Amino acid sequence: MRSVEEHRRTLLALVDELPPETVPIAGALGRVLAADVVAAVDLPGFDNSAMDGYAVRSADLDGAAPGAPVVLDVDGDIAAGDTTRHVLRPGTAMRIMTGAPLPEGADAVVPVELSDGGVDRVSLDLAAEPGRHLRRRGEDVRAGDVVLRGGVRVTPGRLALIAAANLAEVAVVRRPRVAVVSTGDELLPPGSSLAHGEIVDSNGPMLSALVRAAGVELVHSAHLRDDPEALGALLADVPGEPDLVLTTGGVSMGAYDTVKEVLSRDGRVDFVKVAMRPGMPQGSGVVGARRTPIITLPGNPVSSFVSFHVFVLPVLRALSGLDPEVPTTTATATRGWASVAGKVELTRVVLDAEGVRPSGGQGSHMLGALAEATHLAVVDAATSEIHPGDEVRLLPLVGQD
Ligand SMILES: Nc1nc2c(c(=O)[nH]1)N[C@H]1C(S)=C(S)[C@@H](COP(=O)(O)OP(=O)(O)OC[C@H]3O[C@@H](n4cnc5c(N)ncnc54)[C@H](O)[C@@H]3O)O[C@H]1N2
Ligand code: MOO
């Protein structure tokens, strides 16, 4: 049986980082930077005021104190956006607003609260040390600085930094394009009237949702019956030019395991057993003239869900230019549970303020426990029991809040 690590390596060998493209920054959220981002301007771009108040020469306020104010003439106003290069005459103050450029000669700002708020003359109650309430040009970022490294995802905060660095466009890795195909004669769309023996295709909607929640483009989704001809034709030329095809169902030992039957024929897809539970039967390889990478996931709904997190997500990350390793956390078990020895067990768990505990029934057909689950606990093959108080490694569920 293949180890989880070995199978993940096999899958990662099928893909490379996708090429870069330049997009307006409004479309960059969630994308991965294809190159370092270099600031086009200093931040702040000019010395400016951190407070609404009065720009002064600090020497003019020597000795000012509550009850012993210094009174200065006010030589005009400077608002944010004022592009005039003002000069502060010695012995005067200028009214200045937050973010407005500091006049030449000023070396401090006195907040309006420490004055009588005068417009022509102002009485200032406190001495100001040089540099007080100023924001200096370039103190945050210098033009030419690398502000973000390639390979990181654009978050709202990073997007703000790119915009402030005066860049209208940014180079990002092309978004992976994924097709999802569920297979099985027993499957009908949600809302159908179900005859005895028929069930709803939940893997199709689930995988499509996981793909989207992972920030990836879903270019095609379909359900096919267990018809080798139709499946063979679809997989020979999957619509939407995907970078990755996902199938579910038909990969184990059954008489109607069509995915395995069709894809075993030309030898470009391998079907293996991986030492994990759930998610043991797996397949991978390439299909069609474009040699599109394919991952064939098991049909049991939870097996498919878990396999997405353990195998598909690292591949999507690699295509997107991210480190394939999904960051994990740890937490303390508040309840114990049994785990199968010799296989990596992925238990659906709930993490809350107390710690981590299993979320409901763990059968690979049981979707009920997904209502509450926040993570998958990754229990290694050498461990057969988790005890209360044990540290457990946790893989976050895609799209979880
Ligand atoms: N004799 C053996 N039987 C099975 C083995 C084995 O090693 N020897 N492995 C078991 C394990 S583990 C798994 S996992 C499943 C994998 O089966 P398949 O990938 O071939 O999937 P199917 O047989 O098509 O379906 C399994 C199960 O899941 C339901 N299903 C399938 N597709 C969907 C869908 N889109 N939405 C919701 N539910 C779906 C299907 O009705 C079956 O109940 O094989 C075990 N058997
Ligand atoms: O390994 Mo199957 O994926 O347990 O149910």
From TrEMBL:
Protein family according to the UniProt entry: Belongs to the MoeA family.
EC number annotated for this UniProt entry: 2.10.1.1
GO BP, sorted A to Z: Mo-molybdopterin cofactor biosynthetic process
Name by which UniProt lists this protein: Molybdopterin molybdenumtransferase
Enzyme class, broadest EC rank: transferase
GO CC terms of this entry: cytosol
Function per UniProt: Catalyzes the insertion of molybdate into adenylated molybdopterin with the concomitant release of AMP.
Classification via Pfam families: MoCF_biosynth, MoeA_C, MoeA_N
Every MoaB/Mog domain range: 179-318
CDD domains noted in UniProt: MoeA (cd00887)
UniProt GO MF annotations: metal ion binding; molybdopterin molybdotransferase activity
Reaction(s) catalysed (UniProt annotation): adenylyl-molybdopterin + molybdate = Mo-molybdopterin + AMP + H(+)
Pathway membership: Cofactor biosynthesis; molybdopterin biosynthesis
Keywords: Magnesium, Metal-binding, Molybdenum, Molybdenum cofactor biosynthesis, Transferase
Required co-factors: Mg(2+)
Keyword Magnesium among UniProt keywords: yes
UniProt xrefs under PANTHER family: GEPHYRIN, MOLYBDOPTERIN BIOSYNTHESIS PROTEIN
SUPFAM superfamilies, per the entry: MoeA C-terminal domain-like (SSF63867), MoeA N-terminal region -like (SSF63882), Molybdenum cofactor biosynthesis proteins (SSF53218)
Keyword Transferase: yes
InterPro entries tied to this protein: MoaB/Mog-like_dom_sf, MoaB/Mog_dom, MoeA-like, MoeA_C_domain_IV, MoeA_C_domain_IV_sf, MoeA_linker/N, MoeA_linker/N_sf
